[in-house]
Amino acid sequence: MAKKIGTDNKVIWFTGLSGSGKTTLANAFKESMNGDKSNIYLLDGDILRTGLCSDLKFSAQDRKENIRRAAEVAKIIHSTGLWVICSFISPTNEIRNISRSIIGKKNYIEVFINSPIEICEKRDPKGLYKKARAGLLKFFTGIDDPFEIPDQCDLEIRTDLLSIEESVQKIYDYIISVE
What we know:
Layout: E1 11-15, H1 22-32, E2 40-44, H2 45-49, H3 60-79, E3 83-87, H4 93-103, E4 108-114, H5 117-123, H6 128-133, E5 155-158, H7 164-178
Helix pairs in contact: 1-7, 3-4
């Protein structure tokens, strides 16, 4: 079903473990917008890590800087009138609060893409959990480093319980309810 979102553009910040479905849902949500796809920009952590943030590692300080940069980019894109869907692990409440404060609370929707780590490990499209479990990848969120359950999320999506279509519909319904 083709969907349409209003003109009061927002930044939708997807947070969750690697393999939880952040990027999959971001792409599915954009595709569901039919004619409105040009009004949505996807900003993904993997893409920023290969360019703008390629100088950063995975220490706590570098993770903060990664999210600060991502939030600044999202704020700039948002200011052009586009909706921005951000897909970042953003593992701590402190880091998510940084993004919220940069973007502005009235323009920020935080969506916790929740999936048990066991499911994320089974999905593991890049083999990162396997490397982390073998000690080949340090500071991996969920294994070496913690992931804090968001304390201020606007919406939680359980990707282990909902289909992609059901998840997209739930996100869409939430956005329509706050417009």
